[in-house]
Structures are given as structure tokens and as C-alpha cells.
Design goal:
Structural class of chain A: alpha/beta
CATH topology of the largest domain in chain A: UDP N-Acetylglucosamine Acyltransferase, domain 1
Oligomer: homotrimer
Strand order of the largest sheet of chain A: 10-13-16-19-24-27-30-33-36-38-39
CATH class of the largest domain in chain A: Mainly Beta
Shape of chain A: flat
Number of domains of chain A: 2
CATH architecture of the largest domain in chain A: 3 Solenoid
Largest sheet of chain A: 11 strands, mixed
Helix content of chain A: 10-25%
Distance between the termini of chain A: 72 Å
């Protein structure tokens, strides 16, 4: 596919400077780009590289005076790049049909234009909506529902009765609906609490590879629309994640915890169970969160501190040994001063808090 | 299935207050419960909600005076709930038979009433004991043994020669018996140490989804009976985990480390190699343990501290910048005092520890 | 297979003390070894155990005077053990052929002597080189390339166009080439950035179970030759890992970060995006690295400190509450001294840094 720069600007917004009739057929990084590609500069410091790129056009956030390259000027070049790249990479949905090397229950319901690869298993009364694509090695349990245009990559497991919305993408190896980790001690023996709830994933969610979303004990584990989950993430039973939140790789969220809308949990964060993370919160990488976080905060650390405080604390942290040393020296100097001042008549009361 | 409250009390212990003939057919949380359900209150503070529930009966730990609902009174309502829920959810084992879309070695031995789903692979001389259930996508390597009533969920991989006990549950995507991570440097090149041992999993173990239990270099990696392992857990070669221990999500246990009986490792804990964790130890979430922990302790942090000390340390931790400031101010005040006191005749020796 | 001690010494280097004609047919730990085994002692403190072993010979790093066992003396017994064990465990490559229960695209190219197990999926124009072994449940996407003698264990997923080198081992459940985690905010909505790059894995790499290596946004995610990656590791888009580096279990490496050659990242380490880790760096377990690390350093902690400093800081860390207490006591004593010294004529300026 080939598009003129002008028509791309029309599609994603922004204005053209220079030759709008230049034809573009791909998107590439500034160094790898070749003739026919459009490239992009999100960070001002890379603007000088525009002089050397072989790209046919560039997406930038501001006028660049000393460059002859045709430009698409738009406030958010990164977003424009994503949209243009999507234009060039999305293919018209063509059903690959239903493989006769898949095992499909006679009671399963497949809507029109689904693609079912070989080596897929679809259980009793499961429903696969229009244009869904189910890759090899996927297991879909009985009574599970897969929404329209959803893609399940290879070796994904969907346990019985779980619900996956429309336009959802689930990457390879991810497990949706395994039993929540619920046991009660009977003396020393761990007695299993049957997990009779489900997982529900709303529309436009994307989930990375080898992640785990456990079914609820009762009720449901809920991933609201537009949430993006990375690889190797653990989401325990009865968790709820609000719209458009971002859960980065290797995060672990314990049972019954609620994450608000538009939240970002950075890599390797852990949340204890039964807490509430407010809307728009950002939790820094590797933090261990053991309490509710009110909305609109940036927190970091274990236990979590406001961002500015965390930076001050960790800065002081590396000076700890010196502080300890100084404290000891000071003690000696005070002892010396006290000796020279002679005995106190009345003992001062030492307050220790 | 329907059971009278009285018969449930007889089954799990406890006594009935009110109408023991009320019929119960399910278990549900206090807010979701409907007519026919029994609900439960583990935490006193939710007792007032009993007035509003639509449940037909409730499991409680103490007499509740102002509620007309029939009650099952028992010291551990949570445990009673688990047992009753198990009664209502367990189905009589009915073999689904052996699918002709599975690949089964002629030398494999399948006992009676096994269920082998389509798309399963069972290698040479593998043994599958009575009433085991093997879901689609499972790989069972040659000479591996799967015990009675064990369930392997979809896409589980059991490497050759590994042993899985009776009534074991392994959730989807978990890998048992991959090579331990053992290499020796030969100059800069990493030379692989062949991993010729196995993994042995004893009876009544449950393992979550996408976890990894590596085979031993020599001998075996051993998971003793009743252990419960959550999702995305890494258990390295030659690790041994004692009876009834609980290993929560995303924990990593390094090679040759021994975990005692009845231990709890909370989420994202890491243990270094070749250490020993005593019986009944609890290690708090995200802790990094680099030394032996004697039995019956609660530890937390990296490196781990006794629980009470960890709380004091992290409380002081957030005050570090203020401490640093105070220390500097104090230094100035001492300097001022020294100036006013005049020169010291004999220099005091400053002790620095 | 049986080999004389003398011939083993000839094969791996080192010299024999005692009867070089003793026959050896296996390798075992010092306690498990039986007649016919060779055992090894890497750590001096286990030398006394040589008196009790039933092994027929032992690999040691030094002369042992009071033992009658035939010895192979060599500077690195661990390495010699790895090499001898490899001798005894490697089998001549025998092709298992191509199962007719695999699904193989007519346009895929399979070279001679490959082993394709049942339940494998091989996509259009994929290439499988000589003597590669593809276990059940593996998915190989279109145009992916698998090198000579490479082994893909069960349920591995290779996304389209990814390249896997020669003699590579990928353990069960690992996902290579899933989409990198790239989104741009459009208001509150997360817009996906299509990930059009690939993953390239060079020769002699080994990757553990259930790990994830994401494809690049543009260009490639690159794992250079000889790298060893453990289980449950997350390697994000556009990461590059240099030759012979070791990435231990549950490490997470964020997008576009570069790891040098011969680096060790210990368990559960996290690296932020767009940083550079120099050659020969060692990062201690659970560290959170948020900045470039120059070559040849050992760092530890979050944020990372040089190893010696980390030990001092964490040692002081556990004394924090006592320091806080001492600081308060000292304050009182200084106040007392100031009271006794009377008013200061000119206020000293308190410096706060």
C-alpha cells in the first residue's frame, strides 16, 4: 500500500510542510528508514538526525527550519506514528476457516468468518464470535465466550465459563481462569477452597505472553475495557482493574485488590491483597504496596512513598554508613563537652520518641 | 444437589441455631447470595450484613442474637465454607475416556478410568494411574508417572522420568522437569552441566499456572505432600519443599535451597541458593533471603529482619532525610558549644565503630 | 558406555593419580555415587567425604594424600565434571522423522534428519534446519527460521519471522516474538503501536521455561551467541544481550536496554528501559537498575550501589531505629549543654545541606 503524505496528514491530523504529494509505503526508525518510509522524531534531541535520514518524510512536533525533508507537523508524533503504522500493517480480515485438525465440540457455537487453526480445542457450549482468530494449541473451556475480532495466540488457555470481550488480544501461553490460590488451614493441612467464579475481560484489552489471570472464588475477576497487561503478570482471584490501566511486566496483584482507572503499575510491582489503588495513580517499578493509595498520586518504594520523598530517602540511604559514623563522632564530642562543663545539678529528662 | 442445614452441620461439625431443616443447594458471598445459598462470615465486622443477606443460612463463629437466619455455628467458618463448597462442587468422577486425537505411545501404560483429552502427547513407557485427567495440549515425557486422581490442566509439560503423586492438581502452562540452570565457565564460554535428575511431586500438591519446577542436576527436586504453589513460581534444581508449605505467586527459589514444613513464602519472595528455611517460617512479600532462617520465625525485607524490627526500620527509613538534616544541625550546635568552651587541653580520642 | 579414567583425563585434560585403568560409566554426587561412577569435589571442605564414597574415581583440584581412590586432578573439577557428564549423556542424533500428526505448511522447508513430533504446527515458508528437534505443542510462525541441531521443547511458541540460531535450546512454554508492550496515550485511551520487528537468537543460546522475549517495534531484539537465559525471564522489545551473558530466573529487562558481554544478572533483577549495562558487570539479586552501569562492576540494590557500599548500607540500615533514638538523646544533651552555657551573643548560622 502506498499513501501520499497529504492523505496521511488528513487521516491522522496535523499539517504538511513541504511536498505533500510524496508517496509513503512504510514507517521506520530514523536510522533504519529507507526511501518510501516515513520516520518520526518524538524527542527534540534527535532532530539533527533528520539531515541524514534516507526517509521520504518525517513526523515532527514542531517546525524544523534547516531540513528539506517533507514534514508532517503534529503535537504528538509518537501517536501519529502509531496510527500510520497501523494503517500500513493491518490487513483486511480474511477468514482462514475452521481446520479439520481442530477438536470442536458439537455443542460449541462458531459465528461467521472465524479462523480456527489446527490443534485447537473448543469445549462444550463455548461461543466464538465473528472474525475471532484462534491459533494452534489454544484451549477454550466449556461455556467460555470469545468476542468479535478477538485474537488468541498459540497455547493460550481459557478455562470454562470465562468471558473475553471484543477486539481483545491475548498473547501466547497466557492462562485465563485458573483457580485462585485459596486454601484454609485445617491444623497443618491446606484445604482447598473451590474457585467457582470466573474471569471477565472487557473489550479492547490486550494481555501479554505467559501471564496468569485467576478466576474468582465467587463472582468475577474483572479486567475493564482498554486495559493493557504485559508479560508474566499475575492477577489473582477477585481482582478488578479499571479502564485503560497499564500493568507492566512481572507485576503481581494479590486477591481482591482493586486497581482504578488509568493507573500505571510499572515492572515487578507487587500489591498485597484487599487494597484499593485510586484512579490515575502511578506506582514505580519494583514497589511493594501494602496500603490503599488515594487517586492521582505517584508512589515508589517498599513500603511506598510519594515520589519526591522516595528520591530524598534513597539519596540519604546511600549515605547511611557516613551518618552512623558522624553520629558516633558527635557523641564523643558531646561527652567531652559534658565532662568539661562538670556535673549537672538536676538530671535532664531524656525524651525518646 | 440439596442438603439440609442439619446434615451439613453433621458433615463438617458445628451446631445449628434455628431451623435445621432449611434446604441448601449452594454457597455464596454475603452480598451475592440468593435463596437456597448458605453464606459465611469470617470477620466479625461483617456480621451486621447478615440482616440484609438473601441467603437461606449462614456459617458464623459465634452466636448472633438479632438475626433470624438459621445459623451453623463453628469455630472456623472459613474452613466450614471450604468443606461445604467442596461438597456442592465436586462431581462423581466419570471417565471421559481416551481420545483418538491424542498421541499415546504403544508402550505407555494407562490404568482404568483415565480421561485423556484430544491433543495430548504421552511418551514411551509413561504411566497414567486410575482416574487421572489429562487436558488438551499436555505433554507427558517418556517414563514419567502420573498418580491416581491427578489433574493436569491444558498445556502442562511433564519432562521425561518426572514423578507426580496422587490427587495432584497442576494448572495450565506449568512446566515440570525442565533442565536446571547449571553452567560452568570455560574462559568466557558457558558450558552446560547436563541435568540428569528428576522432579518428584508427592501426593495432594497443587501447583498454579505457568510455574516452573526444574529437574535436579543429580538426584531430585522434591515437593513434599500437601504443598501448595501459586502461579509463575520458579523452583530451581535440587530444591526441596517440606510438607504443607505455601509458596505464593512469583516467588523464586534458587538451586539446592531447602524449605521446611508448614512454611509460607509470600508473593515475589526470592531465596538465594544453598540455604535452609526452617519449619513454620513466614517470609513477608518481596523479601530477599540470603541466609538460613531458623524455624518458627517471621521475617521480612532484603536482607531479611525479624518482623518487629522490619517495621521499626521501615518506619525510620522514611524519616532518613530529616535525620540527615537534624544531624547536620546538631553538628553546628556542637561546634558552637566547642568554640565557646575554648580549646581542649588533651584531644579526645574519637571512637568510630 | 564405559571409559577408563585415563581416557577421560586425556579427553578433558588433567592428570591421573592412582589406577588409570579403572572403568567409569557415569557421574554422580559424592553421596549418591556407586561403583562405576566418577564423583567430583569442587569445594575443599567436602574432601573428607572421599573416604566414604562408593564411587570408583573422583575429580579433584589438588592432591589428596590419605585417600586410596583413583583421582583425576585438574584445576576446575566442576568444568571437568560437566564435560564428562556430557560425554556420558549425549546420544547420537537419530531423527525421529516427521509425524503425520503434525500440521506442516506445504511451503515450509524441512531439511534432512529433522524430528517433528506430533501436534506441532509449522507455518508458511518456515525453515527447519538439519537435525532440529521440535517437540509436541510447538508453534512455529510463518517465515520463522530454526537453526541446525536446535531443540524446541513442548509448547514453545515462535512468532512469525523470528530467527533462532544453531544448537539453541528453548525449554517448554517459552514465547519468542510476541508483541512488545508499546502503546501511546490518545487522551486516556491506549493506542497500540504495531510491533513490526523480530527476535533474533544467535547460536548456542539456551533459554529456560516460560520465558518471554518480545519482538522489536522496528528492527530486532537480539540475543547474542552463548547467552544463557533462565526461567520466567522477561526480555522486552529492542533489548540486546551481549555474548555469553547469564540472565537468571525472573529477571525483567525493559525496552531498548542493552546488556553487554559476559554480564550476570542475578535472580529477580529489574532493569529500566533505555539503559546500558557494560561488559562483565554483575548485578546482585532483586536489584532495580535505573541508570547505565559502566563495565567491570559489581552492583547491588535499588537503586544500585557498588557491592562494598551496599553491604555497608544494609548493615547500617538495620540499625536505623537505634540511630534515630541516639540522635534524639544527643539532641537533649546538646540542649542541656546550651542551657548551661547561657545565651549566645551572635546566632550561629545553621548549615543544612
Amino acid at each position: 500500500m502506498e499513501r501520499s503524505l497529504k492523505s496521511l496528514a488528513h487521516e491522522v491530523g496535523g499539517r504538511v510542510r513541504g511536498d505533500g504529494s510524496v508517496m509513503v509505503s512504510g514507517v521506520a526508525g530514523i536510522e533504519e528508514a529507507k526511501k518510501g518510509d516515513i520516520t518520526f522524531v518524538s524527542n527534540e534531541k534527535f532532530l539533527p538526525k533528520l539531515k541524514e535520514t534516507r526517509a521520504s518524510a518525517a513526523i515532527v512536533s514542531q517546525e524544523v527550519t534547516d531540513v528539506s525533508l517533507p514534514l508532517l507537523i503534529i503535537p504528538n508524533p509518537h501517536l501519529a506514528m502509531a496510527k500510520i503504522l497501523t494503517l500500513f500493517t493491518q490487513r483486511p480480515s480474511v477468514s482462514g476457516g475452521v481446520s479439520d485438525m481442530a477438536w470442536i465440540s458439537p455443542s460449541a457455537r462458531l459465528e461467521e468468518e472465524v479462523t480456527i487453526y489446527p490443534l485447537v480445542y473448543i469445549g462444550d457450549e463455548a461461543q466464538i464470535a465473528s472474525r475471532a482468530t484462534i491459533y494452534p494449541g489454544v484451549f477454550i473451556g466449556s461455556q467460555a465466550k470469545i468476542g468479535e475480532d478477538t485474537i488468541l495466540y498459540p497455547n493460550v488457555t481459557i478455562y470454562p465459563r470465562c468471558i473475553v470481550g471484543k477486539r481483545v488480544i491475548v498473547h501466547a501461553g497466557t492462562v485465563i481462569g485458573a483457580d485462585g490460590f485459596g486454601f484454609v488451614k485445617d491444623g497443618k493441612v491446606n484445604v482447598k477452597i473451590p474457585q467457582v467464579g470466573i474471569v471477565e475481560i472487557e473489550d479492547d484489552v490486550e494481555i501479554g505472553a505467559n501471564s496468569c489471570l485467576d478466576r474468582a472464588t465467587f463472582g468475577k475477576t474483572l479486567i475493564e475495557k482498554g486495559v493493557k497487561v504485559d508479560n508474566l503478570v499475575q492477577i489473582a482471584h477477585n481482582v478488578r482493574i479499571g479502564e485503560n490501566s497499564i500493568i507492566v511486566g512481572q507485576v503481581g496483584i494479590s486477591g481482591s485488590t482493586t486497581v482504578g482507572r488509568n493507573v500505571t503499575l510499572a515492572g515487578q510491582v507487587g500489591l498485597v491483597d484487599h487494597i484499593e489503588i485510586g484512579d490515575n495513580v502511578i506506582v514505580g517499578a519494583q514497589s511493594g504496596v501494602n496500603r490503599d493509595i488515594p487517586p492521582n498520586q505517584v508512589v515508589l518504594g517498599t513500603p511506598p512513598l510519594p515520589h519526591w520523598q522516595f528520591l530524598r530517602v534513597t539519596s540519604a540511604w546511600s549515605k547511611l554508613p557516613e551518618m552512623k559514623k558522624e553520629l558516633n563522632i558527635l557523641l564523643k564530642r558531646v561527652e567531652e563537652l559534658e565532662k568539661r562543663a562538670g556535673p549537672v545539678k538536676k538530671a535532664s529528662k531524656r525524651r525518646v520518641r
